Amino acid sequence: MGHHINHSGQFQSDKHPDLPPNKIILSFKDPAAQKALQVFAQETEDRELGDDIADVLENIK
């Protein structure tokens, strides 16, 4: 197992150990995260959330 996998087989953040398992923080400032956020914005069923994420991404480019 990698060092981000806990004893239960769940993801555990090493940068944010206070987060519950299988949770991750993405920064709008991180170019790799921007790609993931863009996909999430397009795929989420919560259109308002998706539109808001897309708007922020558009304004930081």
Which terms would index this structure?
61 residues, mainly alpha, elongated
What's the number of extended β-strand segments? Answer: 0
- Strand composition percent: under 5%
Which structural class matches the secondary elements?
mainly alpha
Instruction: Give the % helix.
Output: 40-55%
> Total helix count?
2
Return residue spans where pLDDT drops below 50 for at least 5 consecutive residues.
none
Work out the oligomeric state of the chains in this entry. Answer: single chain
Q: Which shape, going by the Cα principal axes?
A: elongated
Sheet with the most strands, sense and barrel status = none
| Through-space gap between termini | 36 Å
**Helix and strand succession?**
HH
Task: Describe, in short, the structure shown.
By secondary structure, this protein is mostly helical. It has 2 helices and no strands. α1 packs antiparallel against α2.
